[in-house]
Task: inverse folding
C-alpha cells in the first residue's frame, strides 16, 4: 500500500525497526476493517442474539486497531511508554475478539476468517511491543 | 487484504457493485494512512511553517476517509442518500488534500506520493457515487 | 466543556461565526456518543432482529459525527468546500439515524432520546452549512 | 449531555459503577476534542518548530481518548481485560500529552488549558481502571 512509501520518506524516522512497524500498521488497518465487516455481517445473521458478544468485541477491536494503527504510523517525537501501552491494549482487543469469533467459526465463515486476522494482528502488536520495551530500557 | 473476504461472506449483501465498493474501501484505508503519515512527515520538516495547510488538510482527509471507509464497509440495511453524501464529502476532502500536496510535490517527495493516493481515492469515491446515484433513482 | 476554551485561544481563528462552530462541535460529540450508546443498547434488546437498521445507521452516524466534529474543530487554513461537504454528509447521517430511531421510539426509550439528539445535531450542521456557503460565495 | 441518558437506558447494564463510567466517557470526549484543538492551535503558532512534540502527542491522545471513550460507552457483554488495557493506554496517552503541554504552558495558554483536561481525563481513567481491576479479580 502507498502509505508505506510515505512512512519511508519521513525526514526524522524513529529508530524502532521499520519492517516491524509497517507490518503492525498493515495488520491494524486490515483488522479494523475486518472487524467492522464481521460486526456488520453478524448483525444481519438470523442468530444475531447469539452474536451480541462477537459484535461488541469486534467494534471494540476496530476502535483499538484504528487508534493504534495511527499512533504507530506517526514517527515525530514519539513517547515509547504511550506506544507500548497502546500496543498492549490493541493486543488485548485482538485476543478478546479472536477468542469470541473462534467460538462461532464453525457456523459462521466470516467469524472464522475474522479470528485469523485478529490473531495475526495480535502477533504483529506483540512483536512491536517487544522491540519497544527493549528500546525503552535502553533510553 | 482479509477484510475483502469477510465482506464477500455477508449474509445479505447490498446490490451495489461489489468490486467498486471493495476498491473504494481499499483506497480509503490507504489514503487515511497515507494522509496520517504525510501530516506527520510534514510537521517534522524544517519548512513546517509553509506546510500548515498540508498538515491541516491531510488530517481532515484522514478523518473523512476513515469514516467513509467504515460506512462503505457496512452492508446491513444501508441508506443510499447518506452513502452518497459521505462519498461526496470524502471526494471533496481528497481533492483539497491532493491539490495542496501537489503544491509541495517538487520539494517534498512524501507530498508528491500522498497527492497520488488522494487522487486515486477520489476516483474510487466518484465511481461508487455514480453507481449509488443511479441506484437511488431506481428505488 | 474545556475544548471550547482552547478553540477560543487559536492564534489565527477562522472568520466563520464562532458560536455556530462551538454549537456544532458540541452536538457532534454528543451525537456520536449517543449513537454509539444507542447502537449498543439496541443490540442487547430482545427484539434485536427488528433493530438491524437502527444499529447500522447509528454506527454510520457516529462515524460521520466524529469526523465532522474534528474537521469543524480545526481552524488552521481551512478548505470551505470540504467543510461544507462534511457538514452535508453529517446532516444526512443524522437525518437517516433520526428517522429510523423515531420508528422505534414508542417501544425503546433510548431510540426516542437518540432521535432527539440526532435532530439537534442535524440542525447545528445545517446552520453552520448555511454560514459556510455564504462565506464561500464571498471568497 | 444526552448520551448519558441513553447509557442509563441500556437493557443489560454492566455492573461497573455507572458514575465512574459516565465521568470517564465525558472526560474522554472533552480531552479528545481539546487535544484536536490544541494540536491545531499549536501548528498555527509562529514557534511551531518547538511544538512538534506537543502536536504529535496531542494527536495520539485524541486517538486514544476517542477509542477508549467508545469502548467504555458500550455495555453489552464486555471483556474486562480489554477494558483495563484500553484505560491504561488512555491514561498513558493523557500523561504524555499533559507533561509535554505543561512544558509550553507559560507561553501558550492553549497548552496550559489542554494539560489540565489531560490530567483530569487521566484521573477518571485511573479511577475506572481501579474499579475494573477489582471486578476482574472477583470474576
Result:
Amino acid at each position: 500500500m502507498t502509505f508505506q512509501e510515505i512512512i519511508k520518506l519521513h525526514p526524522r524516522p524513529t529508530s524502532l525497526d521499520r519492517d516491524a512497524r509497517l507490518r503492525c500498521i498493515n495488520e491494524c488497518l486490515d483488522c479494523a476493517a475486518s472487524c467492522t465487516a464481521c460486526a456488520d455481517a453478524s448483525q444481519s445473521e438470523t442468530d444475531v442474539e447469539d452474536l451480541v458478544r462477537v459484535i461488541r468485541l469486534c467494534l471494540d477491536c476496530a476502535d483499538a486497531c484504528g487508534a493504534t494503527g495511527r499512533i504507530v504510523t506517526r514517527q515525530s517525537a514519539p513517547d515509547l511508554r504511550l506506544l507500548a501501552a497502546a500496543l498492549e491494549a490493541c493486543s488485548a482487543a485482538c485476543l478478546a475478539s479472536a477468542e469470541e469469533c473462534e467460538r462461532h467459526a464453525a457456523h459462521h465463515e466470516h467469524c472464522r476468517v475474522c479470528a485469523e486476522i485478529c490473531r495475526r494482528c495480535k502477533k504483529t502488536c506483540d512483536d512491536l511491543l517487544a522491540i519497544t520495551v527493549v528500546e525503552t530500557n535502553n533510553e
Chain C touches chain B at residues 52-53, 55-57, 59-60, 63-64, 66-67, 70-71, 74, 76-79, 81-82, 84-86, 88-89, 91-93, 95-96 (CB under 8 Å). The radius of gyration of chain C is 16 Å. The mean pLDDT of chain C is 97.
